[in-house]
Amino acid sequence: MTEKITNPLDPDNPLKRPSNGEQTEVAHPPQPILPEDSAITKAEKIERNGIGAEDNATSLRETTSKRAKAEDSDSEMTDVPAAKRVKLQPQQNGQGAKVDTEIGAEDNFPSLRETTFKRSKAEDSDSEMMDVPAAKRVKLQPQQNGETAKVDTREKVKGIALVKPEYLINAFSRPEPETSTQIDDDAAEGQGKTDDRDNVGRNGKNQKKKRKEKGQNKSRQFGSWFDAIRLCVSRSNSPEFSPKACSFGDTCKCCHDLRKYLREGKRGDLSTFEGKCPVWEAQGTCFAGWRCRFVSSHSKEIEREDGRKELVLIEREDALKQGFDDEDRPGIFNVVSTNDKINLARRRTPTEKSDTYTGWLDVQQKEMEKVYHEKKDASEETREENRANFTDPPFLPSEKRRIYFGAETPVLAPLTTQGNLPFRRMCVDFGAQLTYSEMAMSIPLIQGQKSEWALMKAHQSEISPPRYTPTSTVQNYDNTKDLKFGAQISASKPWQALKAAEVMGQLLPHLRLIDLNCGCPIELVYQSGAGSALLDAPSKLEKMIRGMNAVSGEVPITAKIRMGTKDGKPTAQKTLERLAFGGYESRERLGAPGCAAVTLHGRSRQQRYTKSADWEYIAECAALVKSYNKQKDDLTDTIREADERTQANTQGNRMFFIGNGDCYSHVQYYDDIKLSAVDSVMVARGALIKPWIFEEIEKGQYLDKSASERLGYVEKFVRYGLEVWGSDEVGVGLTRRFLLEWLSFAHRYVPVGILAHLPPSLQDRPPAYRGRSDLETLLASDNYLDWIKISEMYLGPSHKDFKFQPKHKSNSYEIEAEG
């Protein structure tokens, strides 16, 4: 007969001694080391628990020693170490008592150890029961199905993602947050072809770099990927026996022998996607022609009547209209023709509006200097004469297309490098309602550079109207005329911004808005006077917004700013006031500048990403923007009503306000809108790490994407990339390069199914962990060689000259040039 033993912690659940040979579970499995646990040496304590933990342990021992002396307990109590940290709570519903492991729990139960000891003495228990040390760290919860539930007793540490213990590779180690050595490599991505003018400082003088760029913070190189023999464009899309005439004639250096090119000039066809060309599958034809890495899937050899065999390309009967250059490609909009770019380069494109307005700005600047820099002893007549010299602008802005921002329109931020067309298209598939181009520089746009105008391309999905379900009607807003896609530009002088805005209004028919970047932290951009440098030049910023609004046609003008340029000295509130009303010297004469919306990134230029975004400051600015709309009646001349064409959005001239910074879940998104009172939230890094954040926002729940689903998104990106950049060697290389850029952020995603704490934070770094499958572990790898391995699943082996340099390790949690 099995002897039953009374359980001192739960009398209703008696204990029984195991019979001979009976297998039992380990009573006390190894527990995670807590800061209060003993260690041999001080160095070991620091290694286990971090700096400062030994002080807490010393304090704990002193407190425990004093309390033990004060209590009248038997000497045997010294053999019961568990009671030092045990907190017994009253039983509820007949369940076992809970044990609290918090340090100092004995303060609420000073006689805890005495009570436990007396109860053990009174009950007829075996002496082996006195050796139970489990109560040191175990927190008992209500039993379910006869088993004791396992509860994670670890506390959340700031900067560390709390991963469930069963997925940790080493449960006894915990990485420290790497926030003390943030290295700036924003310039690495922002730096392109430069000349001596790029080193001109804000004072107009050449300035030497303060420090030498080192290691991977230098401008990265990605190698090259070309065919060994280049096929002439006159042959690339033509049948073998009937090619087009080569415009270079005998001087052409490219190959004209198709069979030689296929045999020696290009690498073998890819076997991915079952050997079928994704471009041909989607459009019925392939503009890469014979250069396609899947050419065998859409070509064949036919025999002519004379017995000759000819290589020809195949097209589907339902093939979309397809050109063989960028100007006639289905599904791609805002494509500027080669002739237009040549006209820009040769200064043949007329920009009368911006030239006239810039001339007026120069005259007004001189007149304003007379008024505000006049001598104190100047007569009143002189002052009035100077004021009388002010003239009105040469023309008023055109009536703008009304736009809308709301909680149902989450915004994808403009992202340098990562914000390319395939990635934006994928985010729209997930539910992004508003998108921006990568930041384009004004001077290259005005000069007609192909690379800069390529950033203005938009996919067909970005041309459709955004979701519109407002709680209140927006006056004069027509959702059917609205778009998702907007463009962002950077400029250092008013004439640059005006010319770029006018040209974009002429050449880009599918444009929701033009956003002026006032937040780019890149050193090169800042030193030139553009980006975040405009925050320190509010008068120049106002001239840019006012002038762009005058010359952009029906396209609205918006701005994206930061809190300021320096830590602890925010200037965004003053900037917002100027954008809403204009400066004191111009608001009475000219009215508001006409800024339709402002996006505030809750960080300063100096801060970068070393700290979390300041949403409290964003909330303060949101309250100010609302108050500005109410103050407008007091600041408007009651004799002359403001012209409706100068109003940015509604007749009330409401300026939309969008918050930006650290949004990584639907919980944070809706909390930011509700608590900060912003119109919408712009998502940047959160979208790079998990693009389905827009799907979570739409559905209002966390989505635990499986590894196979996430790999499917990689395949989708590759398909979209090949459609944009081509399926030839160059297109495959570009797709691979930008896929690796995205994976450098996507690998940071920690599945919600293995997190012990929600909502997740962008600032948290996970300890080393294993995924729920080998594929999930591979997708979480921070080794760029594993990223290349993932790319080879769909793009085949990389070119022998292909190179990829990941960003600096300590900076891998930053983002470049989020403007």
TrEMBL record:
Cofactor or coenzyme needed: FMN
Signal peptide boundaries: none
Domain of life of the source: Eukaryota
EC number: 1.3.1.89
DUS-like FMN-binding domain sequence ranges: 412-620, 653-701
Major site of localization recorded for this protein: cytoplasm
GO molecular function: flavin adenine dinucleotide binding; RNA binding; tRNA-dihydrouridine47 synthase activity; zinc ion binding
GO cellular component terms, semicolon-separated: cytoplasm; nuclear periphery
SUPFAM superfamilies registered for this protein in UniProt: FMN-linked oxidoreductases (SSF51395)
Subcellular location: Cytoplasm; Nucleus
Catalytic activity: a 5,6-dihydrouridine in mRNA + NADP(+) = a uridine in mRNA + NADPH + H(+); 5,6-dihydrouridine(47) in tRNA + NAD(+) = uridine(47) in tRNA + NADH + H(+); a 5,6-dihydrouridine in mRNA + NAD(+) = a uridine in mRNA + NADH + H(+); 5,6-dihydrouridine(47) in tRNA + NADP(+) = uridine(47) in tRNA + NADPH + H(+)
Enzyme class, first EC level, given as a word: oxidoreductase
Family annotation (CDD domains): DUS_like_FMN
Gene Ontology biological process terms in this record: mRNA processing
Region listing for Disordered, in residue ranges: 1-153, 171-219, 374-395
Keyword field: Cytoplasm, Flavoprotein, FMN, Metal-binding, mRNA processing, NAD, NADP, Nucleus, Oxidoreductase, Repeat, tRNA processing, Zinc, Zinc-finger
Basic and acidic residues bias: start-end ranges: 63-72, 115-124, 374-387
Family: Belongs to the Dus family. Dus3 subfamily.
Its biological purpose: Catalyzes the synthesis of dihydrouridine, a modified base found in the D-loop of most tRNAs. Specifically modifies U47 in cytoplasmic tRNAs. Catalyzes the synthesis of dihydrouridine in some mRNAs, thereby affecting their translation.
Stated name of the protein: tRNA-dihydrouridine(47) synthase [NAD(P)(+)]
Lineage: Eukaryota, Fungi, Dikarya, Ascomycota, Pezizomycotina
